[in-house]
Amino acid sequence: QSVLTQPPSASGTPGQRVTMSCSGSSSTIGRNTVNWHQQLPGTAPKLLIYDNNQRPSGVPDRFSGSKSGTSASLAISGLQSEDEADYYCAAWDDSLSGWVFGGGTKLTVL
Amino acid sequence: QVQLRQSGPGLVKPSQTLSLTCAISGDSVSSKSAAWSWIRQSPSRGLEWLGRTYYRSKWFNDYAVSVKSRISINPDTSKNQFSLHLNSVTPEDTAVYYCARDSGAWGQGTLVTVSS
Question: Are A14 and A77 a contacting pair, CB within 8 Å?
């Protein structure tokens, strides 16, 4: 059971906009920023969004993040086949004094 | 551009110590704006943060409660790297282990199997 809650799956067709959620608590998302990581099949995770809505250099602006209260969202616009991956949210947990992750959302591009 | 390169054995016997190293390029393990973590991933536990080391005029460590009694993460400033040591391993410690810069790059991952 992960500390952060994500839906196990999401899907969309090429060109569509998809969103996925990440629910936490007052000790996690409520007090700290959220990161999103993308894990393509058979590879290591890669930082996609940091500090709720910041994109590292090289990440397309099709990817965007937001946070409200104890929840966060990742949006992908102009969906492409190469976006098919697992997406994980992460936040610092003040109660546990450590990073916690969501269980991941598997995105399928139909 | 920060890159992390992991090294270490892929097979460890039960009750022994799992040891991995993460070499950093493009950044410094002593950076006062960075923290360096170890994370593992398994089908049963998902992504699990194990701990981190960071420098803020002196060295600090944070460890996950689940492994706190068995873990040590150490910086090596001479080689610009950091290491993970997890002792008294059991088959439940079998996982892919990653090093990572907090809110940054990840290493390539090392599959560690605990088996006799």
Answer: no
Best residue of B20, B48, B49 to probe chain A, by most A CBs closer than 10 Å: B49
Q: How far apart are alpha carbons A37 and A41 in whole angstroms?
A: 13
Q: Quick check: A8 and A71 in contact, CB under 8 A?
A: no
- In chain B the first and final C-alpha atoms are separated, in Å, by 39
Q: CA B31 to CA B47: how far, in whole Å?
A: 25
Q: Calculate how close chain B gets to A18, using CA atoms only, in Å.
A: 23
pLDDT in tens, B22-68: 999 999 999 999 999 999 999 999 999 999 999 999 999 999 999 99
Report the gap between the CA of B65 and the closest CA in chain A (Å): 8
B96 Cβ neighbours under 8 A, 6+ residues apart: B40, B41, B42, B109, B110, B111, B112
CA distances from B100 to A28, B12, B116 (A): 20, 22, 29
Rounded-to-integer distance, Cα B80 and Cα B98, Å: 17
**In this structure, are strands A9-12 and A105-109 parallel, antiparallel, or unpaired?**
parallel
Taking residues A49-77, what's their average pLDDT?
97
List, in order, residues 6 or more apart from A91 with CB less than 8 Å away.
A4, A24, A28, A29, A32, A33, A34, A35, A72, A99, A100
Query: For A8-38, what is each residue's pLDDT tens digit?
Result: 999 999 999 999 999 999 999 999 999 999 9
